Amino acid sequence: MGKALILDAVRTPRGRGKAGKGSLSAIHPQELLAQALNGLVQHTGIAAADVDDVVVGSVSQVGEQGANIARNAVLAAGWPQEVSGVSLNRFCGSGLQAVAMAAYGAASGFQQLIVAGGVESMSRVPMGSDGAGQDGNNARLRERVFQIPQGISADLIATREGFSRQQLDAFAADSHRKATIAVEQGRFTRALVPVVDPATGQVALARDELVRPDTSLAGLAKLALSFVEVGKLTVTPDGRTLDQIALAQFPDTPRIEHLHTAGNSSPLTDGAAAVLIGSEEFARAHGLRPRAIVKSIATIGSDPVLMLTAPAPVSRKALKQAGMQVGDIDLWEINEAFAAVVLETTRSLGVDPERVNVNGGAIALGHPLGATGAMLLGTVVDELERRDLATGLVTMCIGGGQGIAVIVERV
């Protein structure tokens, strides 16, 4: 088997995912992705006609994000009609799964040059717009497995791990601190593709919109808990609440301490990303210097109720595949869906916190669901180069109880 090479990675800035308020909320998601695709061409000088396929992650594939957004973005970008596109959904892991599928194609030799990426406009296509919920509204499935909302899962994890509200808020404040430094020092500049409003020709957003440099522990402490009332909702014919359903599997946990807020959870976000992946043969023939090699890819299923604990076991699986240990990884990107997820993963694996999310994460920067994994992949490659380090691991929790991890080695 050959190697899958990461040739480059770009992304749009992350915009606030609120209709009429976020700077990207006036931009159709196809156009967001199209601008990322064209940004990749401009960065690398590759010919779009050489791309074998465009693989795109998107979670809410309905309305403006339906109808195979990958193919429509290719057309919106003005690329040759011969370039194909496919859209996929592995919930929050979709963008990283797109990278994985592109890597499969390059390493197997079936494809030579693939664009992987993701897009989510949470301002225009709100989370849950497909009406399927977590389980497709399958009553029979709910008799077997009742999948609770992720926020309750995050609170259940925090409760079982003994994390305090102060610990979660401290992690969130640190995410904003690190992201603020990264923005001020221009650490994201290399990858950023400013978004232009197609209707006006004016730049709509040139830098990440959600980072709050003035975030403080005192300010975070004032925020209301997000999932207390959700947990009280009665959702079964026999009158059980979501909290009761969650606790039924864990008799050693008497109650859920609801601790997550809008401040220590990832915000609604708009954005798109594109990663160029090629075979060794293509890179050699076209004089392209790879930036990194994909060392291993792993996915795993986990408890569909606790749901968000898969990053640790899937990271172990990826490390075993690569013949590596936790200490061999220089930089970790653990998606900050909720503060408790990163704290639990870091503790479970025994990772040095100084190696985790060194430029902040989704709590500060935002989590445009289907795009985030591809964004994190580009971020870790950029930072490995900046720090002259060798290896990075990107991992994400996923709805329904799944995890994904990708290890890269800098060239």
From TrEMBL:
Q: Look up the domain of life of the source.
A: Bacteria
The GO terms this record gives for MF are: acetyl-CoA C-acetyltransferase activity
| Residues covered by the Thiolase N-terminal domain | 5-234
Which Pfam families did the record assign?
A: Thiolase_C, Thiolase_N
Coiled-coil annotated residue ranges, if any: none
Q: Which UniProt keywords apply?
A: Acyltransferase, Transferase
> Gene3D superfamilies, from UniProt?
3.40.47.10
Name the top EC class: transferase
Q: What region holds the Thiolase C-terminal domain? A: 289-410
InterPro entries attached here?
Answer: Thiolase, Thiolase-like, Thiolase_AS, Thiolase_C, Thiolase_CS, Thiolase_N
Give its E.C. classification number.
Answer: 2.3.1.9
| NCBIfam families linked to this entry | AcCoA-C-Actrans, PRK08242.1
List, alphabetically, the PANTHER family matched.
ACETYL-COA C-ACYLTRANSFERASE (PTHR43365:SF1), BLR7806 PROTEIN (PTHR43365)
Give the family, as the similarity comment puts it: Belongs to the thiolase-like superfamily. Thiolase family.
Protein name according to UniProt: Acetyl-CoA C-acetyltransferase
